[in-house]
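Hey,
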Amino acid sequence: MTLADRIVIMRDGYIEQDGTPLEVFEHPINTFVATFIGSPPMNLISGTMLAENGAPQIALEQELRIDVPSHLVNHVRQGQRVDFGFRADDLMPEGHTLPMQGNVASLNLEVGIAEPLGTETLLFIELTGAEIQTKMLNPSPVSPGERLDFKLALSKCHLFDAETGKTVKA
């Protein structure tokens, strides 16, 4: 990402996506590109689209529901199976975040592993059977099993069709 003005992401000899490094990072066209570019890779969680009381939501597990990000509302349908994507920088513990713009979801999650890296700590959390990674800026000690309140920047989230792997907003 630091060596080129434009990049091409290829898989099995075919072009998946091309563009500036920032375009590809911020607007991946499919789940392959989303998890290929960036470190740590984009978190992906399986879910189903619901519309309860007229408000579209993503059902991630038993009782966990997240509002569909406003920029994606018109691109999904009731019952659609999706992969909900977000980067580690877009889900952070309260008090240890970057400034978040727009709608924010609040989640209380249990930390599995904390990996201190100096000025930040990577947190590994199990959510709906998938391991996700988040970051904690200005870290403080965190123990395995500790529950923290997190903020998720919905404006930075992505939805991919679970069958095709393609972004729902093209």
